[in-house]
Amino acid sequence: AWVGVMQQDCPFEERNTVGYKRCIYRMMEQVGRAREFMQVLLRTDHDAGRPKLHEIFGGDCKRIALIHLFIDTLTPLLEGSNMAEDDRLHQCRAACDSVRGVLKDAGLTAHLEEARSEAERQAEQVSRRNCEELSRQSPDKEPQIFEPRPPAVRPRATSTELLEQRAKMLVDIDGATSVEAAYSLIDELFDMYDTDESGLLEGEEYHKVLKDLTQHILKEATAVQQKLGRRFVPTEEVLHQWVIDVVDPNRDGAISREEARVGFKKAVDDINS
């Protein structure tokens, strides 16, 4: 269904809406999960003939065909955006190609081609149904490709209380005992910053991240100096620029969830190294 929705010939203006961006970012989260699943499978399924891989993706090859079509359809939608170079997309494609290569080596090329054709046919049917539904909408009503999600109910808190909550979460991330625990906390913190629920931290959200991380690192660096007797603590401006390099490596003024996962963790970890 997602592939069918993405294949619609939607006006560019609609693709710039918050609802559309949110949907794209949700899709990218699915891409990340698919990437991780295939990478783990490729690394661990070393038995002769790769039986586990064939059990999951072999046979009629429909699963890998859908992933392959999903990536091919999503890629052009991201051209020119900050997500175009997202590692999840490229690594998922690479993992998908590796799985397809194993299946081709096992003589399933014809099955792969047939499954791809069937996936495209089903996606076209979904796209056609969606377009027909849009055409039936009232002309004075703006077409809604994606159902808007009701706004999240957030606890009422003062600016100071919110700042303290974010500061505490950074401390918790720093003290996380596993990568999974750190990522879970980072996701929660990302959602706190993402007040418009667009899946991207921009504008005021972006500057709050930079300020919070800079203050956290400055505080930690000062504590390390006092504890270990180090003489040098970087200035706030130096730390601010370093935080930008870490959480926004492409300097586009926006932070995706994937960039936050990598950057937030690096920022709180490196101060202790």
Description of the molecule:
α3 crosses α6 (87-105), α5 packs antiparallel against α6 (87-105) and α9 packs across α12 (257-270). The protein has twelve helices and two strands, in the order αααααααααβααβα. It is an all-alpha fold and 273 residues long.
Short description:
The protein has 273 residues and is mainly alpha-helical.
Work out the helix count.
12
Largest sheet: 2 strands, antiparallel
In round numbers, the mean pLDDT is 80
For the termini, the CA-CA separation is 46 Å
Strand order of the largest sheet: 1-2
| Overall body shape | globular
Write the SSE topology.
Layout: H1 2-6, H2 12-15, H3 18-44, H4 51-57, H5 62-77, H6 87-105, H7 109-135, H8 159-174, H9 179-193, E1 200-202, H10 203-228, H11 236-247, E2 254-256, H12 257-270
Antiparallel strand pairs: 1-2
Task: Name a few traits of the molecule.
single chain; about 270 residues; mainly alpha; two-stranded antiparallel ribbon; 2 strands; globular; disordered N terminus
